Amino acid sequence: MGMASLHCCIALVLILACGYANAQDSTTLVSAIITFGDSVADVGNNDYLYTIFKANYPPYGRDFAGKKATGRFCNGKLATDITAETLGFKSYAPPYLSGPSGKDLLLGANFASAGSGYDDKTAYLSHAISLTQQVEYFKEYKGKLAKAAGSSSKADDIIKGALFLVSFGPSDFIQNYYVNPYVNKVYTVDQYSTMLVKIMSDFIKNLYSLGATRIGVTSLPPLGCLPAARTLFGNHQSGCVQRINQDAQNFNKKANAAAGSLLKQLSGLKLVVFDIYKPLNDLIQSPSQFGFTEASKGCCGTGTVETTVFLCNPHSIGTCSNASAYVFWDAVHPSEAANQVLADALILQGFALL
C-alpha cells in the first residue's frame, strides 16, 4: 500500500470511528491516553531518575517542537505522540514524574521509563521505573484524576474511555537476557519469553481490574535488526541477527495467544496486540520503497554503539544532517520518520479499540 492510499485509509477509519467514540472531549476519539513502557514511549520520566538512560540533551529532540531535548529517545516525535495527534489531542500527556496537575491530568498520564521491561529486574539494572512501580504510580494518578475531574465517578468514566498503551519487551532481551548470565544460564530463551508473557497477561488483568477497557500492547520489533544488536551479537556478519529475530517472533506468537485467552476471560475488554514487527522489518529490508536510504545504522554518532552502548551523546561525531532518510535515530530507537510509519500501523490495527 502506498503512503497516499494509507493516509486515505486512516482518514476513513477515523471518520467511521467518530460515530462510535465515547470521548470526554468531542474533538478526541478517546477520553485520555495512558502509557506504560520503556524508552520507545518515555517522554521524559528518566530525566528525573539517577540513570545513564537519558535523552534530555542534544542531539536528541533536534527536530522536535522548539528543537528541544525533552527526554524522548528520538530526533522528533515518538509513535505514541503521532498517535495522540491522530486521535485529536492538541498536546501530549506529560511525564508523570514531572508532577502534572489540574487540566494536564485530564489528558492522561505517561509512566514509561527507558530501560524498563516486563521483568522488574530489567528495570533495576538501569535504575528505571519498573512495571510494578508504574502500576503504583497509576493508582496514585487515579486519585489525583478524581480531584482534577471533580469526582471519582467522572474519573472512572475517563479511565473507562481512555486508551491504554503498553510498550515493553526489547530491554528485557537486549539489555538483560542476552547479556546477563544470571538470567540466560537459568532460563532458556523460550522459558524466559513464556515468563514475560505471563507477566504481561497478569499486568493486563490488573489494569482491567483498575478500570481499563481499551488496551493496546506493542509486539516486539525485529530485535536482531537494531543497529546495536547487529554490532553486539552479529559476529561481524552483515544483515540482521536471525536467531534474535526468531526469539522476537516466538515471543509475539505467545503474546497473541495470551491476548486471545484474555479476551475470552474478561468481559467488555478491548485488547489489541499491535504488530510492529512487520512494518519495521519491511522498512529495514526495503528502505528505498518507503523513502529511506539507511537502515543498518542510526543517524547520530557512529549509529552502531556509543559510549553508553545504545545512546547518542552530546559529543556524538558524524550525526547525519537528514534524519528522515534513516530508519533509526540512534543504535536502538527509530527516527521520527520511521515512527510515522509505525504510528500509521498502530492506528489501522487499533480500530477495534476506538
TrEMBL record:
InterPro entries the UniProt entry points to: GDSL, GDSL_lipolytic_enzyme, SGNH_hydro_sf, SGNH_plant_lipase-like
Keywords: Signal
Keyword Signal set for record: yes
A single cellular component GO annotation: apoplast
rRNA-binding as UniProt keyword: no
A Gene Ontology molecular function term of the record: hydrolase activity, acting on ester bonds
Protein origin, superkingdom: Eukaryota
Signal sequence interval, chain numbering: 1-23
PANTHER family hit by this protein: GDSL ESTERASE/LIPASE EXL3, GDSL ESTERASE_LIPASE APG
Protein family: Belongs to the 'GDSL' lipolytic enzyme family.
Protein name in the entry: GDSL esterase/lipase APG
Organism (species): Kalanchoe fedtschenkoi
